[in-house]
Amino acid sequence: EPEVTQTPSHQVTQMGQEVILRCVPISNHLYFYWYRQILGQKVEFLVSFYNNEISEKSEIFDDQFSVERPDGSNFTLKIRSTKLEDSAMYFCASREAGGHYGYTFGSGTRLTVV
Amino acid sequence: AQSVAQPEDQVNVAEGNPLTVKCTYSVSGNPYLFWYVQYPNRGLQFLLKYITGDNLVKGSYGFEAEFNKSQTSFHLKKPSALVSDSALYFCAVRDKENNFNKFYFGSGTKLNVKP
Fold it and tell me: Is there a contact between B34 and A44 if contact means CB atoms under 8 Å apart?
């Protein structure tokens, strides 16, 4: 079964550093998403991306965050200057054009900011 | 506003007994409802969904869920629990008419199945 692949599985970074979280969505999918889950809390929507632009973003997704699909296969989330409160599990997801019902989620990247 | 409530932080059940994990939702339009499971240090795995049609939905690993429109509920059930079912379960909703792209997740319920 096709999978959404996220790398790395765990990343530790110092406060103030930039991080890039990488995702490889399923190849024929056209819609891409990032969610995050702070430890012990709900999974929260960050951003959706379609046709090479952001289609929706939450209030969490401020100027420190950006997304990019640099080469037609990867989908990245960049945090410019990490804060302690950015520590969370970040999930990438994708869906195909007609796949209105379900996404496929990746296994997540656990980001720890120290 | 769209939201999902999972009223129980934790559910404890003995192996072999039936289990229920509760979920209620609130959406402006018509709901698409989902259950996901998360094992330790793993991602979100899809269990089942309700889109339309039969209110009783069957999913992976013997789980099922019943959509109840009048009670705005979508409780997850399994007739006979296994120790390996122990995990974190998330209910999620998408609103067919509003913010369709976005999932709204509940806070999760930790299921403990004891041998």
Answer: no
